């Protein structure tokens, strides 16, 4: 028997275990970070349940009630603002994802003059702050007679979300093998048929990320909505909340209750899309 056969394979070393003090310090840091992250949310919920003037003395225990919520839902136009925000957010999500997906797929798969400068243009557009864009967008919407309308606000939000989403989806489509497109062409599918029937089902994680980003962009935006929506029946939630703040007094109890209600749809969308978020973000960043 040779010497090589007598050599036994080395057993893998057991992974080093943390000491009790290091483990305790790690868990303490995690608990502290969790408390810091959750405390503002819990405090807002607590203040919203203290009544109209409970925010003035938050440390004084006087019981909890839902008067702020009943006042908002029954005596204000909160439900109208909520419906307007749903229309604008869903319209922005659907239109923004459609434009971003087609643009990202075209740049990923097709070679046409200016396809690289197009993606860099998308990236440069993201660098402009919203305050700089308000005046030119206001003039454009005024010329198109889209001021104080859902369509104008949806187009405005798409101009903000589409550049980032198209850039990210282009990187995601790069990770999908081009052989799938070739197989679709062999089967007689048109370019759009290949995109819609073969590529889109494989791109669900990337589409989920862009859809979530587009929804959040439209759901919580204030600057554009407050400037482009002039009639109260067209206010979104972010703009409607400003009516609770006057020159003499601010209704912080109503503000906190409305803030809690506003976060519910965003949290629902997040939980629906969360299983795709990590995969979509990581895959979209592997190639550029």
TrEMBL record:
Residues 82-273 form the ABC transmembrane type-1 domain. It is a multi-pass membrane protein. The chain crosses the membrane at residues 21-49, 86-106, 118-138, 150-169, 252-273. This is Sugar ABC transporter permease. Keywords: Cell membrane, Membrane, Sugar transport, Transmembrane, Transmembrane helix, Transport. InterPro entries: BP-dep_ABC_trans_perm, MetI-like, MetI-like_sf. Coiled coil: none annotated. Its main location: membrane. It comes from the Bacteria. It is found in: Cell membrane. Belongs to the binding-protein-dependent transport system permease family. MalFG subfamily.
